[in-house]
Amino acid sequence: MAQEAAGTVGARLSPHVDALIRAAQSGDQDAFEQLVRTYDQSVLRLAMNLLRSPEDARDVYQEAFLRVYRNLHAFRFDCSFHTWLYRIVTNICLDLLRKRKVRKEEPSVVETSDGPIDRLDTHEEGAAAADPERAMWNRELKQRIDGALGGLTPRERMVFELRHYQGLRLRNIGEVLGTTEEAAKNCLFRATQKMRGVLGDFL
Amino acid sequence: MTCDSVTKLIPLYYYGELTPEEEDLFDQHLHECAVCTAEMERQRVLAAALDVRRLSPPPLLLEGCRADLMAAIAGGAPAIEKAAKGPWTLFLEALNLSFAGFGKMRQPAGALALIAIGFLAARFSGSLIPFASNGFRSMSLSPADSILSTVRSVKPDSAGRVQITVDETRRREVSGRLDDPDIQKFILAGSRGENAAVRVEAVGLLRNPGDSPQALDSLLNALANDPNDGVRLKALNALKPLAGDPRVSKTLSQVLLSDTNPAVRMQVIDLMVARRDDATVGVLQNLVQREENSGVRLKASNVLKDWNASIGTF
Known about the structure:
The complex is a heterodimer.
Chain A: H1 15-25, H2 29-51, H3 54-71, H4 81-102, E1 109-112, E2 115-118, H5 126-130, H6 132-150, H7 154-165, H8 170-177, H9 181-199
Antiparallel strand pairs in A: 1-2
Chain B: H1 3-14, H2 20-32, H3 34-51, H4 59-74, H5 87-98, H6 106-120, E1 123-125, E2 140-141, E3 146-156, E4 162-171, E5 174-175, H7 181-191, H8 196-205, H9 213-225, H10 229-239, H11 246-258, H12 262-272, H13 278-290, H14 294-306
Helix pairs in contact in B: 1-3, 2-3, 4-7, 4-9, 7-8, 8-10, 9-10, 10-12, 11-12, 11-13, 12-14, 13-14
Protein backbone atom coordinates (compact mmCIF):
# COMPACT_ATOMS: atom_id res chain seq x y z
CA MET A 1 0.00 0.00 0.00
CA ALA A 2 0.99 3.58 -0.59
CA GLN A 3 0.99 4.39 3.09
CA GLU A 4 3.55 1.69 3.86
CA ALA A 5 6.07 3.52 1.73
CA ALA A 6 5.26 6.86 3.30
CA GLY A 7 8.43 8.91 3.58
CA THR A 8 9.40 10.74 6.71
CA VAL A 9 9.87 14.01 4.86
CA GLY A 10 6.91 16.12 3.88
CA ALA A 11 5.22 19.26 4.98
CA ARG A 12 3.07 18.86 8.07
CA LEU A 13 -0.56 19.48 7.53
CA SER A 14 -2.37 22.64 8.33
CA PRO A 15 -4.40 22.27 11.54
CA HIS A 16 -7.59 22.56 9.48
CA VAL A 17 -6.73 19.68 7.15
CA ASP A 18 -5.34 17.72 10.10
CA ALA A 19 -8.68 18.08 11.89
CA LEU A 20 -10.61 17.09 8.76
CA ILE A 21 -8.56 13.91 8.38
CA ARG A 22 -9.06 12.93 12.01
CA ALA A 23 -12.79 13.60 11.80
CA ALA A 24 -13.05 11.61 8.55
CA GLN A 25 -11.07 8.77 10.13
CA SER A 26 -13.68 8.56 12.87
CA GLY A 27 -16.44 8.27 10.28
CA ASP A 28 -17.55 11.90 9.73
CA GLN A 29 -18.81 11.92 6.09
CA ASP A 30 -19.02 15.73 5.89
CA ALA A 31 -15.39 16.01 6.94
CA PHE A 32 -14.44 13.49 4.25
CA GLU A 33 -16.32 15.50 1.63
CA GLN A 34 -14.57 18.70 2.71
CA LEU A 35 -11.23 16.91 2.56
CA VAL A 36 -11.99 15.76 -0.99
CA ARG A 37 -12.97 19.29 -2.02
CA THR A 38 -9.68 20.64 -0.64
CA TYR A 39 -7.63 18.53 -3.03
CA ASP A 40 -9.83 17.30 -5.85
CA GLN A 41 -9.32 20.16 -8.31
CA SER A 42 -5.57 19.58 -8.44
CA VAL A 43 -6.10 15.81 -8.71
CA LEU A 44 -8.47 16.22 -11.65
CA ARG A 45 -6.15 18.72 -13.35
CA LEU A 46 -3.22 16.32 -12.97
CA ALA A 47 -5.20 13.40 -14.39
CA MET A 48 -6.61 15.49 -17.23
CA ASN A 49 -3.20 16.83 -18.25
CA LEU A 50 -1.50 13.46 -18.03
CA LEU A 51 -4.13 11.35 -19.73
CA ARG A 52 -5.60 14.06 -21.98
CA SER A 53 -9.04 12.51 -21.79
CA PRO A 54 -11.96 13.70 -19.62
CA GLU A 55 -13.26 10.11 -19.41
CA ASP A 56 -9.96 8.75 -18.09
CA ALA A 57 -9.55 11.74 -15.75
CA ARG A 58 -12.97 10.99 -14.31
CA ASP A 59 -12.05 7.34 -13.75
CA VAL A 60 -8.82 8.33 -12.01
CA TYR A 61 -10.67 10.78 -9.76
CA GLN A 62 -13.21 8.15 -8.73
CA GLU A 63 -10.69 5.37 -8.17
CA ALA A 64 -8.26 7.62 -6.27
CA PHE A 65 -10.76 9.06 -3.82
CA LEU A 66 -12.43 5.70 -3.26
CA ARG A 67 -9.00 4.30 -2.35
CA VAL A 68 -8.53 7.26 -0.01
CA TYR A 69 -11.93 6.53 1.52
CA ARG A 70 -11.10 2.88 2.05
CA ASN A 71 -7.60 3.42 3.41
CA LEU A 72 -7.82 6.67 5.32
CA HIS A 73 -7.84 4.73 8.60
CA ALA A 74 -4.26 3.68 7.83
CA PHE A 75 -2.98 7.24 7.29
CA ARG A 76 -0.61 7.85 10.21
CA PHE A 77 0.45 11.48 9.61
CA ASP A 78 4.05 10.45 8.96
CA CYS A 79 4.04 12.28 5.64
CA SER A 80 1.89 15.08 4.29
CA PHE A 81 -1.60 14.08 3.20
CA HIS A 82 -0.83 15.70 -0.17
CA THR A 83 2.12 13.33 -0.68
CA TRP A 84 0.03 10.32 0.38
CA LEU A 85 -2.83 11.30 -1.92
CA TYR A 86 -0.51 12.00 -4.86
CA ARG A 87 1.10 8.57 -4.40
CA ILE A 88 -2.30 7.01 -4.93
CA VAL A 89 -3.15 9.25 -7.89
CA THR A 90 0.20 8.86 -9.64
CA ASN A 91 0.08 5.07 -9.23
CA ILE A 92 -3.31 4.92 -10.94
CA CYS A 93 -2.20 7.30 -13.70
CA LEU A 94 1.06 5.39 -14.28
CA ASP A 95 -0.91 2.15 -14.64
CA LEU A 96 -3.14 3.77 -17.25
CA LEU A 97 -0.20 5.30 -19.12
CA ARG A 98 1.54 1.92 -19.19
CA LYS A 99 -1.57 0.25 -20.56
CA ARG A 100 -1.79 2.92 -23.23
CA LYS A 101 1.80 2.25 -24.26
CA VAL A 102 0.65 -1.25 -25.12
CA ARG A 103 -2.36 -0.21 -27.16
CA LYS A 104 -2.04 2.56 -29.71
CA GLU A 105 -2.81 5.97 -28.31
CA GLU A 106 -5.62 7.94 -29.93
CA PRO A 107 -4.34 11.09 -31.64
CA SER A 108 -5.87 14.31 -30.36
CA VAL A 109 -6.04 15.90 -33.81
CA VAL A 110 -8.52 14.21 -36.13
CA GLU A 111 -9.21 14.85 -39.79
CA THR A 112 -12.76 15.87 -40.65
CA SER A 113 -14.46 17.17 -43.79
CA ASP A 114 -14.02 20.67 -42.30
CA GLY A 115 -10.28 20.13 -41.91
CA PRO A 116 -8.29 18.93 -38.90
CA ILE A 117 -9.97 19.38 -35.51
CA ASP A 118 -8.27 19.05 -32.14
CA ARG A 119 -10.49 17.12 -29.73
CA LEU A 120 -8.69 18.71 -26.80
CA ASP A 121 -9.26 22.32 -27.81
CA THR A 122 -11.82 23.75 -25.44
CA HIS A 123 -11.89 27.23 -26.94
CA GLU A 124 -11.22 29.00 -30.19
CA GLU A 125 -7.99 30.90 -30.36
CA GLY A 126 -9.20 34.19 -31.75
CA ALA A 127 -5.99 35.56 -33.26
CA ALA A 128 -4.97 32.18 -34.67
CA ALA A 129 -8.41 31.58 -36.14
CA ALA A 130 -8.20 34.87 -38.02
CA ASP A 131 -4.77 34.04 -39.44
CA PRO A 132 -4.81 30.72 -41.35
CA GLU A 133 -1.02 30.53 -41.57
CA ARG A 134 -0.64 30.98 -37.84
CA ALA A 135 -3.46 28.53 -37.18
CA MET A 136 -1.67 25.91 -39.27
CA TRP A 137 1.62 26.57 -37.47
CA ASN A 138 -0.14 26.26 -34.10
CA ARG A 139 -1.77 23.03 -35.17
CA GLU A 140 1.53 21.57 -36.27
CA LEU A 141 3.19 22.69 -33.05
CA LYS A 142 0.44 21.07 -30.98
CA GLN A 143 0.83 17.83 -32.91
CA ARG A 144 4.57 17.89 -32.38
CA ILE A 145 4.14 18.59 -28.66
CA ASP A 146 1.68 15.71 -28.37
CA GLY A 147 4.18 13.53 -30.20
CA ALA A 148 6.97 14.69 -27.90
CA LEU A 149 4.93 14.02 -24.76
CA GLY A 150 3.79 10.68 -26.18
CA GLY A 151 7.42 9.69 -26.78
CA LEU A 152 8.27 9.87 -23.08
CA THR A 153 8.16 6.82 -20.85
CA PRO A 154 5.26 6.90 -18.34
CA ARG A 155 7.69 7.74 -15.54
CA GLU A 156 9.38 10.55 -17.50
CA ARG A 157 5.97 11.86 -18.44
CA MET A 158 4.90 11.83 -14.79
CA VAL A 159 8.02 13.61 -13.51
CA PHE A 160 7.73 16.23 -16.23
CA GLU A 161 4.03 16.73 -15.54
CA LEU A 162 4.52 17.11 -11.80
CA ARG A 163 7.41 19.56 -12.25
CA HIS A 164 6.35 21.62 -15.26
CA TYR A 165 2.56 21.68 -15.03
CA GLN A 166 1.94 21.04 -11.34
CA GLY A 167 4.93 22.96 -9.97
CA LEU A 168 6.03 20.30 -7.44
CA ARG A 169 9.64 20.39 -6.25
CA LEU A 170 11.78 17.48 -7.39
CA ARG A 171 12.28 16.42 -3.74
CA ASN A 172 8.50 16.05 -3.35
CA ILE A 173 8.25 14.30 -6.70
CA GLY A 174 10.81 11.77 -5.46
CA GLU A 175 8.71 11.18 -2.34
CA VAL A 176 5.50 10.81 -4.31
CA LEU A 177 7.02 8.34 -6.76
CA GLY A 178 8.94 6.43 -4.10
CA THR A 179 12.32 7.33 -5.56
CA THR A 180 15.20 9.71 -4.84
CA GLU A 181 15.46 13.37 -5.75
CA GLU A 182 18.49 12.46 -7.85
CA ALA A 183 16.49 9.91 -9.84
CA ALA A 184 13.75 12.50 -10.38
CA LYS A 185 16.39 14.98 -11.63
CA ASN A 186 17.73 12.44 -14.12
CA CYS A 187 14.21 11.66 -15.28
CA LEU A 188 13.46 15.36 -15.84
CA PHE A 189 16.70 15.78 -17.80
CA ARG A 190 15.92 12.80 -20.05
CA ALA A 191 12.38 14.04 -20.61
CA THR A 192 13.59 17.53 -21.56
CA GLN A 193 16.26 16.18 -23.90
CA LYS A 194 13.75 13.94 -25.68
CA MET A 195 11.29 16.77 -26.16
CA ARG A 196 13.95 19.12 -27.43
CA GLY A 197 14.89 16.45 -29.93
CA VAL A 198 11.35 16.10 -31.24
CA LEU A 199 10.53 19.81 -31.24
CA GLY A 200 13.97 20.75 -32.61
CA ASP A 201 13.12 23.18 -35.45
CA PHE A 202 10.26 24.78 -33.50
CA LEU A 203 12.59 26.03 -30.78
CA MET B 1 31.80 24.46 -15.00
CA THR B 2 32.17 22.96 -18.47
CA CYS B 3 29.64 23.25 -21.30
CA ASP B 4 28.86 19.56 -20.84
CA SER B 5 27.97 19.89 -17.16
CA VAL B 6 26.00 23.10 -17.82
CA THR B 7 23.90 21.34 -20.48
CA LYS B 8 22.83 18.76 -17.89
CA LEU B 9 21.88 21.48 -15.45
CA ILE B 10 19.82 23.62 -17.85
CA PRO B 11 16.40 22.11 -16.98
CA LEU B 12 17.23 22.22 -13.26
CA TYR B 13 18.28 25.87 -13.54
CA TYR B 14 15.11 26.73 -15.41
CA TYR B 15 12.92 25.09 -12.74
CA GLY B 16 14.87 26.65 -9.87
CA GLU B 17 16.19 23.32 -8.63
CA LEU B 18 19.89 24.21 -8.30
CA THR B 19 21.55 25.08 -5.00
CA PRO B 20 22.58 28.77 -4.67
CA GLU B 21 26.23 27.77 -5.19
CA GLU B 22 25.43 25.78 -8.34
CA GLU B 23 23.33 28.66 -9.60
CA ASP B 24 26.21 31.13 -9.17
CA LEU B 25 28.58 28.88 -11.11
CA PHE B 26 25.93 28.35 -13.77
CA ASP B 27 25.33 32.12 -14.19
CA GLN B 28 29.05 32.71 -14.36
CA HIS B 29 29.40 30.17 -17.18
CA LEU B 30 26.45 31.64 -19.12
CA HIS B 31 28.06 35.11 -19.04
CA GLU B 32 31.12 33.67 -20.73
CA CYS B 33 29.54 31.17 -23.13
CA ALA B 34 27.26 32.16 -26.03
CA VAL B 35 26.52 28.52 -26.96
CA CYS B 36 25.17 27.65 -23.51
CA THR B 37 23.26 30.97 -23.39
CA ALA B 38 21.53 29.96 -26.64
CA GLU B 39 20.77 26.51 -25.18
CA MET B 40 19.24 28.17 -22.14
CA GLU B 41 17.06 30.27 -24.42
CA ARG B 42 15.89 27.12 -26.20
CA GLN B 43 14.85 25.69 -22.84
CA ARG B 44 12.71 28.80 -22.21
CA VAL B 45 11.09 28.54 -25.65
CA LEU B 46 10.41 24.82 -25.06
CA ALA B 47 8.74 25.56 -21.72
CA ALA B 48 6.61 28.33 -23.25
CA ALA B 49 5.56 26.05 -26.13
CA LEU B 50 4.58 23.31 -23.70
CA ASP B 51 2.43 25.75 -21.74
CA VAL B 52 0.20 25.97 -24.82
CA ARG B 53 -0.80 22.35 -24.23
CA ARG B 54 -1.75 22.84 -20.59
CA LEU B 55 -5.26 21.44 -20.24
CA SER B 56 -7.98 22.47 -17.84
CA PRO B 57 -10.78 20.04 -17.03
CA PRO B 58 -14.13 21.02 -18.61
CA PRO B 59 -16.18 23.08 -16.13
CA LEU B 60 -18.84 20.43 -15.57
CA LEU B 61 -16.38 17.61 -15.07
CA LEU B 62 -15.39 18.45 -11.50
CA GLU B 63 -18.99 18.64 -10.30
CA GLY B 64 -19.78 15.40 -12.12
CA CYS B 65 -16.84 13.66 -10.47
CA ARG B 66 -17.88 14.89 -7.03
CA ALA B 67 -21.46 13.71 -7.53
CA ASP B 68 -20.24 10.29 -8.75
CA LEU B 69 -17.92 9.87 -5.79
CA MET B 70 -20.44 10.83 -3.14
CA ALA B 71 -23.08 8.64 -4.78
CA ALA B 72 -20.65 5.71 -4.85
CA ILE B 73 -19.94 6.20 -1.16
CA ALA B 74 -23.60 6.66 -0.25
CA GLY B 75 -24.42 3.62 -2.37
CA GLY B 76 -22.21 1.34 -0.34
CA ALA B 77 -18.50 1.77 -1.08
CA PRO B 78 -16.68 -0.14 1.64
CA ALA B 79 -16.12 2.30 4.48
CA ILE B 80 -13.05 2.98 6.49
CA GLU B 81 -12.01 -0.46 7.70
CA LYS B 82 -11.90 -1.35 11.36
CA ALA B 83 -8.90 -2.97 12.98
CA ALA B 84 -10.95 -5.79 14.49
CA LYS B 85 -10.92 -9.13 12.68
CA GLY B 86 -13.93 -9.51 10.41
CA PRO B 87 -15.85 -12.72 9.76
CA TRP B 88 -13.85 -13.29 6.56
CA THR B 89 -10.53 -13.17 8.42
CA LEU B 90 -11.88 -15.44 11.12
CA PHE B 91 -13.15 -17.83 8.46
CA LEU B 92 -9.76 -17.97 6.73
CA GLU B 93 -7.98 -18.54 10.02
CA ALA B 94 -10.35 -21.36 10.89
CA LEU B 95 -9.82 -22.86 7.44
CA ASN B 96 -6.06 -22.61 7.85
CA LEU B 97 -6.26 -24.48 11.16
CA SER B 98 -8.43 -27.18 9.63
CA PHE B 99 -5.66 -27.97 7.13
CA ALA B 100 -2.98 -28.09 9.83
CA GLY B 101 -2.60 -31.87 9.76
CA PHE B 102 -2.21 -32.21 6.00
CA GLY B 103 1.57 -31.83 6.09
CA LYS B 104 3.05 -30.98 2.68
CA MET B 105 -0.35 -31.15 1.00
CA ARG B 106 -1.95 -28.43 3.03
CA GLN B 107 -0.85 -25.41 0.98
CA PRO B 108 -2.00 -26.51 -2.47
CA ALA B 109 -5.06 -28.22 -1.02
CA GLY B 110 -5.99 -25.10 0.92
CA ALA B 111 -5.45 -22.90 -2.13
CA LEU B 112 -7.55 -25.16 -4.34
CA ALA B 113 -10.33 -25.31 -1.77
CA LEU B 114 -10.40 -21.52 -1.53
CA ILE B 115 -10.39 -21.06 -5.30
CA ALA B 116 -13.34 -23.46 -5.45
CA ILE B 117 -15.11 -21.47 -2.74
CA GLY B 118 -14.43 -18.25 -4.63
CA PHE B 119 -15.92 -19.48 -7.89
CA LEU B 120 -18.69 -21.77 -6.75
CA ALA B 121 -20.00 -19.93 -3.73
CA ALA B 122 -19.84 -16.45 -5.20
CA ARG B 123 -22.83 -15.15 -3.32
CA PHE B 124 -22.75 -14.44 0.38
CA SER B 125 -25.63 -13.17 2.41
CA GLY B 126 -25.15 -10.70 5.22
CA SER B 127 -22.50 -8.10 5.72
CA LEU B 128 -18.89 -9.23 5.68
CA ILE B 129 -17.37 -5.76 5.79
CA PRO B 130 -18.76 -2.90 7.84
CA PHE B 131 -20.41 -0.41 5.51
CA ALA B 132 -20.96 3.31 5.90
CA SER B 133 -24.10 4.34 7.68
CA ASN B 134 -26.05 6.21 5.05
CA GLY B 135 -28.95 7.46 7.12
CA PHE B 136 -31.71 6.51 4.66
CA ARG B 137 -34.99 7.22 6.39
CA SER B 138 -37.72 7.16 3.82
CA MET B 139 -36.64 4.25 1.66
CA SER B 140 -37.10 0.57 2.14
CA LEU B 141 -34.06 -1.64 1.77
CA SER B 142 -34.27 -5.25 0.83
CA PRO B 143 -33.52 -7.30 3.97
CA ALA B 144 -31.32 -9.76 2.15
CA ASP B 145 -28.54 -7.48 0.86
CA SER B 146 -25.95 -9.61 -0.87
CA ILE B 147 -22.27 -9.39 -1.63
CA LEU B 148 -20.92 -10.78 -4.88
CA SER B 149 -17.39 -12.05 -4.35
CA THR B 150 -14.71 -12.97 -6.84
CA VAL B 151 -11.38 -14.41 -5.76
CA ARG B 152 -8.68 -12.56 -7.71
CA SER B 153 -5.57 -14.29 -6.41
CA VAL B 154 -4.47 -16.98 -4.01
CA LYS B 155 -0.87 -16.99 -2.78
CA PRO B 156 0.24 -19.70 -0.32
CA ASP B 157 3.47 -19.01 1.62
CA SER B 158 6.07 -21.36 3.10
CA ALA B 159 4.64 -20.90 6.61
CA GLY B 160 1.46 -22.72 5.67
CA ARG B 161 -0.69 -19.62 5.36
CA VAL B 162 -2.40 -18.27 2.28
CA GLN B 163 -3.02 -14.72 1.10
CA ILE B 164 -6.21 -14.22 -0.87
CA THR B 165 -7.42 -11.17 -2.75
CA VAL B 166 -11.20 -10.93 -3.04
CA ASP B 167 -13.20 -8.36 -4.99
CA GLU B 168 -16.57 -7.77 -3.39
CA THR B 169 -19.49 -5.87 -4.83
CA ARG B 170 -22.50 -5.28 -2.66
CA ARG B 171 -25.91 -5.53 -4.32
CA ARG B 172 -29.14 -4.44 -2.73
CA GLU B 173 -32.52 -3.07 -3.69
CA VAL B 174 -33.88 0.26 -2.63
CA SER B 175 -37.28 1.69 -3.38
CA GLY B 176 -38.96 4.96 -2.63
CA ARG B 177 -40.74 7.96 -4.07
CA LEU B 178 -39.21 9.67 -7.08
CA ASP B 179 -39.09 12.99 -5.25
CA ASP B 180 -37.21 11.48 -2.31
CA PRO B 181 -33.79 13.22 -2.21
CA ASP B 182 -32.02 9.96 -1.36
CA ILE B 183 -33.66 8.20 -4.30
CA GLN B 184 -32.64 11.10 -6.51
CA LYS B 185 -29.02 10.59 -5.37
CA PHE B 186 -29.13 7.03 -6.70
CA ILE B 187 -30.75 8.21 -9.91
CA LEU B 188 -27.98 10.79 -10.27
CA ALA B 189 -25.40 8.05 -9.87
CA GLY B 190 -27.27 5.90 -12.39
CA SER B 191 -27.31 8.75 -14.89
CA ARG B 192 -23.50 8.65 -14.86
CA GLY B 193 -23.02 4.89 -14.69
CA GLU B 194 -21.43 2.56 -17.20
CA ASN B 195 -24.60 0.87 -18.39
CA ALA B 196 -26.27 2.84 -21.22
CA ALA B 197 -29.69 1.31 -20.57
CA VAL B 198 -29.52 2.42 -16.93
CA ARG B 199 -28.40 5.89 -18.01
CA VAL B 200 -31.35 6.23 -20.42
CA GLU B 201 -33.76 5.31 -17.63
CA ALA B 202 -32.06 7.41 -14.96
CA VAL B 203 -31.72 10.56 -17.07
CA GLY B 204 -35.45 10.41 -17.74
CA LEU B 205 -36.16 10.23 -14.00
CA LEU B 206 -34.06 13.14 -12.79
CA ARG B 207 -36.39 15.60 -11.07
CA ASN B 208 -36.37 19.38 -10.64
CA PRO B 209 -33.26 20.31 -12.62
CA GLY B 210 -34.38 23.91 -12.13
CA ASP B 211 -33.91 23.61 -8.36
CA SER B 212 -31.22 20.97 -8.13
CA PRO B 213 -27.83 22.06 -9.50
CA GLN B 214 -26.65 18.44 -9.43
CA ALA B 215 -29.57 17.27 -11.56
CA LEU B 216 -28.99 20.13 -14.01
CA ASP B 217 -25.26 19.36 -14.19
CA SER B 218 -26.03 15.74 -14.81
CA LEU B 219 -28.46 16.50 -17.63
CA LEU B 220 -26.11 19.00 -19.28
CA ASN B 221 -23.26 16.55 -18.94
CA ALA B 222 -25.34 13.75 -20.48
CA LEU B 223 -26.42 15.99 -23.34
CA ALA B 224 -22.93 17.20 -24.12
CA ASN B 225 -20.87 14.09 -23.48
CA ASP B 226 -22.87 10.87 -23.38
CA PRO B 227 -21.89 8.54 -26.25
CA ASN B 228 -25.38 7.01 -26.34
CA ASP B 229 -27.93 8.74 -28.61
CA GLY B 230 -30.87 7.63 -26.44
CA VAL B 231 -29.37 9.17 -23.32
CA ARG B 232 -28.74 12.47 -25.10
CA LEU B 233 -32.30 12.56 -26.43
CA LYS B 234 -33.72 11.84 -22.95
CA ALA B 235 -31.57 14.59 -21.49
CA LEU B 236 -32.82 16.99 -24.16
CA ASN B 237 -36.38 16.12 -23.29
CA ALA B 238 -35.77 16.71 -19.59
CA LEU B 239 -34.18 20.08 -20.33
CA LYS B 240 -37.15 21.39 -22.33
CA PRO B 241 -38.64 23.46 -19.48
CA LEU B 242 -35.25 25.12 -18.95
CA ALA B 243 -34.46 25.98 -22.56
CA GLY B 244 -34.32 29.69 -21.69
CA ASP B 245 -31.72 29.18 -18.93
CA PRO B 246 -28.33 30.67 -20.00
CA ARG B 247 -26.35 27.53 -19.06
CA VAL B 248 -28.76 25.28 -20.92
CA SER B 249 -28.76 27.63 -23.88
CA LYS B 250 -24.95 27.60 -24.03
CA THR B 251 -24.80 23.80 -23.96
CA LEU B 252 -27.53 23.57 -26.60
CA SER B 253 -25.46 25.80 -28.91
CA GLN B 254 -22.40 23.62 -28.43
CA VAL B 255 -24.35 20.42 -28.99
CA LEU B 256 -26.03 21.79 -32.10
CA LEU B 257 -22.64 22.39 -33.71
CA SER B 258 -20.97 19.21 -32.52
CA ASP B 259 -23.47 16.36 -32.05
CA THR B 260 -23.09 13.61 -34.65
CA ASN B 261 -26.75 12.60 -34.64
CA PRO B 262 -29.10 14.68 -36.89
CA ALA B 263 -32.12 13.69 -34.74
CA VAL B 264 -30.46 15.26 -31.72
CA ARG B 265 -29.58 18.37 -33.72
CA MET B 266 -33.22 18.66 -34.92
CA GLN B 267 -34.52 18.52 -31.36
CA VAL B 268 -31.92 21.01 -30.18
CA ILE B 269 -33.26 23.50 -32.72
CA ASP B 270 -36.76 22.99 -31.29
CA LEU B 271 -35.49 23.93 -27.86
CA MET B 272 -33.39 26.84 -29.05
CA VAL B 273 -36.42 28.49 -30.59
CA ALA B 274 -37.46 29.29 -27.01
CA ARG B 275 -34.62 31.78 -26.71
CA ARG B 276 -34.45 34.34 -29.46
CA ASP B 277 -31.37 36.51 -29.10
CA ASP B 278 -28.33 37.53 -31.14
CA ALA B 279 -26.26 34.60 -29.90
CA THR B 280 -28.90 32.05 -30.92
CA VAL B 281 -29.29 33.69 -34.32
CA GLY B 282 -25.51 33.55 -34.76
CA VAL B 283 -25.37 29.86 -33.87
CA LEU B 284 -28.19 29.00 -36.29
CA GLN B 285 -26.53 31.03 -39.08
CA ASN B 286 -23.30 29.20 -38.39
CA LEU B 287 -25.14 25.89 -38.52
CA VAL B 288 -26.76 26.66 -41.88
CA GLN B 289 -23.30 27.28 -43.34
CA ARG B 290 -21.79 24.00 -42.18
CA GLU B 291 -24.68 21.54 -41.71
CA GLU B 292 -24.48 18.44 -43.91
CA ASN B 293 -27.97 17.11 -43.21
CA SER B 294 -30.54 18.81 -45.46
CA GLY B 295 -33.41 18.35 -42.97
CA VAL B 296 -31.51 20.03 -40.15
CA ARG B 297 -30.31 22.79 -42.51
CA LEU B 298 -33.87 23.43 -43.69
CA LYS B 299 -35.21 23.54 -40.15
CA ALA B 300 -32.58 26.06 -39.06
CA SER B 301 -33.21 28.16 -42.19
CA ASN B 302 -36.96 28.20 -41.46
CA VAL B 303 -36.40 29.40 -37.90
CA LEU B 304 -34.16 32.19 -39.17
CA LYS B 305 -36.79 33.14 -41.77
CA ASP B 306 -39.50 33.21 -39.08
CA TRP B 307 -37.30 35.53 -37.07
CA ASN B 308 -36.63 37.73 -40.15
CA ALA B 309 -32.93 37.04 -39.70
CA SER B 310 -30.58 36.53 -42.65
CA ILE B 311 -29.65 32.95 -43.49
CA GLY B 312 -25.93 33.57 -43.85
CA THR B 313 -23.31 35.50 -41.94
CA PHE B 314 -21.57 38.40 -43.64
